[in-house]
Every structure is written in structure tokens, then in C-alpha cells.
Amino acid sequence: VTLLDTLVAVMAGVIIFPAAASFGIATTKGPELVFITLPNIFQQMLLGSVWSAIFFLLLAIAALTSTISIHEVITAYVSEHYRMSRRNAARTVTAIVTALGIVASLSLGVWSGYKVFGLTLFDLLDYVTAKIMLPLGGMFTCIFVGWRIDRNLLHDEMTNHGTVRFRMFRLFVFMIKYIAPIVIALVFLNELGVFGKA
């Protein structure tokens, strides 16, 4: 999964940025890249509407599958913490997320004048999740896995209870305990602008 994810990301970069440059379109990042730059590229291509429809269909499928996996985590928490049935928990989470999504979407249009800390709600949610929650989640996960989880349990998880060889297990544990949290912390601080403009 890691290799395929990295390969697809590299291939996307190799395709998108030369395509934008060849059509004289300025490249952007984040939502603007997906919803402004890429549609402009598709308009310049032969059968651009077809490629655009295929791209956004696949994007919707990718978003939906990711949403389901994240939805399950919140649903399980709400169900257990508030002692609700899974069905009611799922409906409650869906309603809250849908309402928040509608408001975030409107903040790109008719509600774009409403700002929080100088950002629209969409940009604020994007900033908080991408630049704060993801790095902190990764750093705390490394700390938890490296320092709190029993070493034998970790070994069983990484080797499928001994059925898969993992020769670099000790190096993996060392990286998780010492290197990864420091590197993630540096990335986190850089994104916050501690080392200059992010």
C-alpha cells in the first residue's frame, strides 16, 4: 500500500505539472489544483470533457471510500461512548458531518465573506487537519507504538504472528521510537512557520 501510494503520487506529479506548463497554466496546490487547475488542463485536451468526467468520478470514489473508513472510527466511538446502537450512531455522525460539509462548501461561495482567523471555514478545516492534526496524530502514533506497545505484540503485528519475515524489526523500532517523532515534529513546526514562512 505504501509503495503504490507513493508511486501514484509521483506519477501524478510527473503528469500534472508538465501538462500545466505545456498549456501555460499556472500550477496551484490543494483544492485549487483539483478544482481549478486540472479542469483548465482538461479543457485544453482532446476529449477533455471525457477525461474530466472520468477523473472526477474516480476522485469521488476515492473520497467516498476514505470517508467510509474514517466514518467507522467516529461511529464506533460514538456508539461505545454514548451507548447508542450502531445504526443511530452512524446516522448521528452522518448528519453532523453532512451539515459541516455543507457549511464548508458554502464558505467557498456565498459565505466566503465570513472568516475565522482570517480564513474561510473550508480553509480553516483544511489548515487544522492538514497542518496540525495529521502531524500530531502521526507523532503521537509513533510515540505510542515505540514506547507503550509491548515489543512482542508489535513483532506479532509486523510479522503476522511470525508467518512473514521482518529482518529489520530492530531498526524499525529504533526509527519509530527516536527518528520518526523528531522528524515529524520538525515538519510540524515548519508547517506552522516556526522556521520561516511555510
Q: What is the strand and helix layout of this fold?
A:
Layout: H1 2-22, H2 31-44, H3 48-81, H4 86-106, H5 121-147, H6 151-159, H7 169-191
Helix pairs in contact: 2-3, 3-4, 5-7
Q: Bin the helical content.
A: over 70%
**What profile does the largest beta sheet have?**
none
**Overall pLDDT metric:** 87
Radius of gyration: 21 Å
**Secondary-structure element order, N to C:** HHHHHHH
Shape: globular
Count of DSSP-assigned helices: 7
> Total number of β-strand segments?
0
Structure in words:
The chain has helices spanning 2-22, 31-44, 48-81, 86-106, 121-147, 151-159, 169-191. 75% of the residues lie in helices and 0% in strands. The chain has 7 helices and no strands. It is globular, with a radius of gyration of 21 Å. With 198 residues, the protein is mainly alpha-helical.
